[in-house]
Design brief:
The structure holds two protein chains of two kinds. Chain A has two domains: 225 residues, Rossmann fold; 66 residues, 2-Layer Sandwich (Alpha-Beta Plaits), CATH 3.30.70. Chain A is 38% helix and 29% strand. Chain A has eleven helices and 14 strands. Classes of the chains: A alpha/beta, B mainly alpha.
Chain lengths: 314, 243
C-alpha cells in the first residue's frame, strides 16, 4: 500500500452492494498529487460506481475514501469545493449558452465575482469554444458538448478532476484533442482521475493505471510496470496450411483462449495459459490434418495485455 | 446561511431561464389555470365572488407545481440534476432553489387571473396588502409541495401522471370550487388535510373579509409551516435518493 501522506485520494476497502450484488468489492488504492490516474475496466466492472462513491453521488456500503484528507461522506461540501466532476454524459443545461452554463457553475462554486468572466473566457479559449460562447448547449456537436462539460468542471480551479469515460462516443480527432487538453491540464497541476474502458486511452495518457474487473482491482501500476509484469511474449501467432478454418471454429476447439482474431493469413491468440493453448493448437492441427506453417510468440499490445489481466481474474 | 440562500437563487434563475417556456410549464402552469378560472368565474353567476379567491389559489397552485415538475423531471431524466448535487451546497439549498423557481413561475401564472378578477370581473380584495402576502405564502407553499412531490415519485416519466392524480382531487377538496359548507360533514377532515386549504383560506379572507374554516392568522401560520416542512422533507428526500 502506498504511503498515505502521498495520496490526494486515499481509498480503503471501498464496497458497494446493490441488493445481493457486490458492484464494488473492497477496493483500495491511492492517487498521488498531480498524476493522471487511469481507472480501467470492462463495462460493468464497477468503475462508474467507484467514481460516484468518491464524488458523493452514490452511498458507500462500507470502507472509506478521503480526498485531500476530507472524508467524502462527512465532509462532502469541502470535497466538492476541491474536485471537478465530468460525468459520462454531457449534462449541462440545454437552453443556456456556453457562457451562461459556465457562469452558472462559477457562481455555484463560489468563484469571486471579479474573476468569473476572466476564468470563463480562459476556459472557452482553452477548449476551443470561444466562437461558440453564445451558442446554446443543445446546438453544440457531441465533441463540443463534451469539452464544455469538462470546462464547467474546471471553472473553480479544482485540485482533482474526475472524468468518467470522457471520450466515449467521440471521433478520433475530438478524442485526440481532448487527450492533449487533459495532459495540458495535468501540467497545470490538476490531478486527474480518469475512468475508461478504452485500453489505448488509459495506457496513452495515464501515469498509473488501476485495472478493475468484477468490482475488484486486479492490477495497479504504471503502464510500463503493467506491461513488464504481464507481458512476456504472451500473444501466440499461428498459421495453418491450408488456412480455411474460421476463428469461431478455432475458439470452439481450442480451450483457454481469451481472444482470437484473424490477421491476414494467420491468427493472433491471447491465451489464458500459453502452454495449454499451444498444445491445443497442435491437437487441432493434427485432428484436421493441417500443417502448422507458423507458430511464434510476441509481446502483447495494450489491448491484449488488458484482456490477459482481466481474463486471469475470471 | 446567506451563501446558501444566494445559491438557491442562482438555481432558481437558471431554472427559470431553462424551463419557463417549455410546453408543459406554459400549458399546465399558465394556460390551464387561466382557462379554468375563466370558465368557472364566468359561468357560475352568483357564486363568482366566492369562487374568485379559490381560483387565484388554484391558478398559483397549478402554476408553481407545474414548474417544479417540469424542471425536476427534465433534470432527473437527462442527468443534469446530478450536477446540482456536485456543487458545494446542502440538499435543502437545492430544494429551496427548485422551490424558488416554481415560486417565480407561480407568481407569473397568477397575473392573468388577478387581472381577470380585478379588472374584468371587478372583484377587488377587501385587504389588498393581505392579498399580496397571501399570494406570496400560497405560492411558496404550493411550490414546496410541487418540489416534494416531484422527488417522491421515483420514475420521472410518471411525475405528471402522479401530479394530476393528486392535484385534481385537491381542487375539489380544498374549499376552492365547492364550498365546504355544501359538503358532507365528514369531508371536513379531508379538507383540513389539504395544504391548499389554508392558503386558499387566507386569500379568501383578503377578498371577502370572512373565512369558511379557520381564522386567517391560523391558516397563515399553518400554510407557512406546511411549506417549510415540505421544503425540509424535500431536501431529506434528495439526500436519500442517492443509490
Amino acid at each position: 500500500m502506498d504511503n498515505d501522506n502521498e495520496c490526494v485520494i486515499s481509498v480503503k476497502e471501498l464496497t458497494k452492494i446493490y441488493g445481493s450484488v457486490k458492484a464494488v468489492d473492497r477496493v483500495s488504492f491511492c492517487v498521488k498529487d498531480r498524476e493522471i490516474f487511469g481507472f480501467l475496466g470492462p463495462n460493468g466492472a464497477g468503475k462508474t460506481t467507484t467514481v460516484r462513491m468518491l464524488v458523493g453521488l452514490t452511498t458507500i456500503s462500507s470502507g472509506n475514501a478521503l480526498v485531500y484528507g476530507y472524508n467524502v461522506v462527512k465532509d462532502y461540501k469541502n470535497v466538492r469545493k476541491i474536485i471537478g466532476v465530468v460525468p459520462d454524459v454531457s449534462n449541462l443545461y440545454l437552453e443556456l449558452t456556453c457562457f451562461q452554463n459556465l457562469l452558472f457553475s462559477a457562481k455555484m462554486y463560489d468563484v469571486p465575482k471579479g474573476m468569473r468572466e476572466e476564468r470563463i473566457n480562459y476556459l472557452l479559449k482553452f477548449f476551443g469554444l470561444w466562437k461558440f460562447r453564445n451558442v446554446k448547449f443543445k446546438n453544440l456537436s457531441r465533441g463540443l458538448k463534451r469539452r464544455l462539460t469538462i470546462a464547467a468542471a474546471l471553472v473553480h480551479k479544482p485540485k482533482v478532476l474526475f472524468l468518467d469515460e470522457p471520450t466515449s462516443g467521440l471521433d478520433v480527432m475530438s478524442r485526440r484533442i481532448l487527450w492533449t487538453q487533459l495532459k495540458e491540464l495535468n501540467r497545470q497541476e490538476v490531478t486527474i482521475f480518469l475512468t475508461t474502458h478504452n485500453v489505448y486511452e488509459a495506457f496513452h495518457i495515464s501515469d498509473r493505471i488501476a485495472i478493475i474487473n468484477k468490482g475488484r482491482i486486479v492490477a495497479i501500476g504504471s503502464p510500463k510496470e503493467l506491461s513488464k509484469r504481464f507481458s512476456t511474449q504472451e500473444v501466440i501467432e499461428v498459421a495453418f496450411y491450408p488456412s480455411k478454418m474460421s476463428t469461431k471454429d478455432l475458439s470452439e476447439h481450442i480451450k483457454g483462449m481469451l481472444s482470437v482474431k484473424r490477421v491476414g493469413n494467420h491468427f493472433e491468440i491471447v491465451p489464458l495459459n500459453k502452454n495449454s493453448v499451444i498444445e491445443g493448437i497442435v491437437r487441432y492441427a493434427k485432428s484436421r490434418g493441417l500443417e502448422i506453417s507458423m507458430l511464434r510468440l510476441r509481446s502483447a499490445d495494450a489491448e491484449e495485455l488488458f484482456l490477459k489481466i482481466v481474463g486471469e481474474t475470471k | 446561511m446567506i451563501d446558501e440562500l444566494v445559491k438557491s437563487f442562482y438555481i432558481a434563475m437558471k431554472d427559470f431561464r431553462e424551463y419557463y417556456m417549455k410546453p408543459g410549464a406554459v400549458s399546465w402552469g399558465l394556460l390551464f389555470p387561466f382557462v379554468f378560472a375563466l370558465a368557472f368565474m364566468v359561468r357560475r353567476g352568483g357564486l363568482t365572488e366566492w369562487l374568485a379567491p379559490g381560483m387565484i389559489a388554484l391558478a398559483l397552485f397549478f402554476g408553481s407545481t407545474s414548474m417544479s415538475a417540469m424542471s425536476i423531471v427534465f433534470e432527473r431524466r437527462f442527468g443534469s440534476f446530478e450536477r446540482l448535487m456536485l456543487y458545494p451546497v446542502t440538499y435543502t439549498t437545492i430544494a429551496l432553489g427548485k422551490t424558488l423557481s416554481s415560486f417565480i413561475m407561480g407568481l407569473f401564472s397568477i397575473i392573468p387571473v388577478l387581472i381577470l378578477t380585478m379588472v374584468v370581473l371587478k372583484i377587488p380584495p377587501i385587504h389588498p396588502f393581505l392579498l399580496v402576502l397571501a399570494v406570496v405564502l400560497a405560492t411558496f407553499e404550493s411550490s414546496a409541495f410541487g418540489v416534494l412531490l416531484s422527488f417522491l415519485v421515483k420514475d420521472p416519466t410518471q411525475v405528471m401522471v402522479v401530479f394530476n392524480l393528486v392535484r385534481f382531487p385537491m381542487m375539489f377538496l380544498a374549499d376552492v370550487i365547492i364550498p365546504v359548507s355544501l359538503m358532507p360533514h365528514y369531508i371536513l377532515s379531508i379538507v383540513l388535510l389539504q395544504p391548499l386549504t389554508y392558503s386558499a383560506e387566507v386569500i379568501r379572507f383578503a377578498y371577502e373579509g370572512s373565512y369558511d374554516i379557520l381564522p386567517p392568522e391560523i391558516s397563515f401560520a399553518l400554510a407557512l409551516l406546511i411549506g417549510i416542512v415540505f421544503l425540509v422533507v424535500a431536501g431529506y428526500i434528495i439526500r436519500r435518493s442517492k443509490p
